Amino acid sequence: MTIHLVDIQQVIHTCPAYPEPHPYDIRRTLVDVIPGGPCRAPVTIRCGAQTTLVPCHRHEPAKRQCGACRVIVTERTITTRHLTEVGG
Description:
- This protein has no helices and five strands.
- It has 88 residues and is mainly beta.
- It has one domain.
- 2% of the residues are buried.
- The mean pLDDT is 89.
């Protein structure tokens, strides 16, 4: 399984329309990718007389993909900043 490691920075604020704090800017930074290796269950695609093998992640939904093709996103850190309204 391929693992994507990300850092998340989010900025939250309150405003007159929505008095509860809510995020308005979320940024994700890709920190590392740990590859899962080659596909273990390639799919045969037929087009007329031709047949081609493609990795299962290009053809199958996530629940039917092999372990090497599945992608997992792991959040390493989540940083939250709260902006307060300045002025009035």
